[in-house]
Amino acid sequence: MENIFSQIRELSEKYSNYTAENLSKLVKIKSLSTQEKDVQLELKRQMEEAGFDEVKIDGLGNVIGRIGNGKKILAFDGHMDTVDLGQLENWSFDPLGGEIKDGFVHGRGTVDQEGGPAAFVTAGRILKELAFDRDLTIYFVGSVMEEDCDGLCWKYIVEEDKIVPDFVISTEPTNLNIYRGHRGRMEIHVHFYGISSHGSAPERGKNAIYMASRAALEIEKLNERLAYDEFLGRGSVTISEIISGSPSLCAVADYARIHLDRRLTWGETKESAIKEIEEVVKGMNAKVEVLDYNETAYTGLQYGMEKYYPTWKMEESHEVVQTGVNAYKNVFGSAPKVDKWTFSTNGIMTCGTYKIPTIGFGPGNEVLAHAPNEKVPVNDLVVAAAFYAAYAYELAE
Q1: Local structure of 201: helix, strand or coil
Q2: Residue 397: its pLDDT value, please?
Q3: Is the four-CA dihedral 187, 30, 363, 316 of positive or negative sign?
Q4: 186-296 has which CATH code?
Q5: CATH superfamily entry for domain 2-182+311-396
Q6: pLDDT tens-digit map of 269-296
């Protein structure tokens, strides 16, 4: 086996330019959520060119490449949609240029997170070149709509495509560390219903904005006393929007709504989070609601889910984590750092909902996600490609 790991490392370095150029091609194609069609066709082409055994696009628009046909199933996931470009004057290069320069690939999506899929295409090419023949089926998934609704793509893959992996590796950026979890999240609306009256006699009405304001100040205090987990940290809640309605600007507001971004640490659930907010608005004419996502994919399929994204973490001793640690040591001769994400990923569905053992390993630094001047080191792509191929061999053992 030792020989196989040194071959993997050599091939990943040999294909350094190939990986960078593949990523550059992906970055040049703008691919917002629900608008991924063109980037998906390019990813499919890259998988086919790399010699994958089978490549298909499912009903939601996920690209699914397969290598091998064994009993055990390993899946790599990387979402192909990106956020928008933001203010162009904040960029010092073309965000859709895909420029390869000074050891980096530049542009929107290089870190979050088309770099992961570019690296796993190369990993697939390496496995085919080494005539990988272990008792393992490996799926390489270029998924859709993650930026709009984490995990929706995997809900479709598990429930509609009927693909249920034994292990999942998310290729979201981890700075080449192994990540074993992150906080969950949910999106909540709180509606406040008042009674309007003429603005000249506010005492006749009941102002919904005042209700919302009192609740907002209590929610600020709630944030200070939420649960804490030694690994994942503290839960949090913040108000990210407040809107109101009134029959006239000369009238008492009879409606207000706040939007809550709630981050859930270990032990916090949808039910516990809703109960906390219901306590805050007790005695007010208010309604607490968890939002739904229901949009049309680029394939024309309408699909959705509730915007509750469960917390997840793997124990460091778990096989899915230790296989990664061993694969890394075998290829690079040193131990990787094991840590967690600050943000949320499709792991909320694979592990948080379906309890499939999941870890993360990806090129790039998550601080550049959604930021201007996003770029990924070419060396990160090389390391990631080697790690993915090595993981398949290590798991098959």
Answers
A1: coil
A2: 87
A3: positive
A4: 3.30.70.360
A5: Zn peptidases (3.40.630.10)
A6: 999 999 999 999 999 999 999 999 999 9
Q: Report the distance separating Cα 42 and Cα 152, nearest Å.
A: 22
d(CA 343, CA 147): 11
Chain centre to alpha carbon of residue 135: 29
Cα(371)–Cα(199) distance, rounded to whole angstroms? Answer: 44
Q: Where are the CATH 3.30.70.360 domain residues in the chain?
A: 186-296
Active site (catalytic) residues: 81, 146
Local confidence band at 245 (pLDDT 50, 70, 90 cut-offs): very high
Task: Please give the backbone phi and psi of residue 396, each rounded to the nearest 5 degrees, phi first.
Answer: -65, -25
Largest CA distance in the chain: 84
Report the run of H or E that residue 241 belongs to, with start and end.
strand 236-245
Local confidence band at 1 (pLDDT 50, 70, 90 cut-offs): confident
pTM, 2 dp = 0.95
> Is the bond preceding 46 in cis, omega lying within 30 degrees of 0?
no
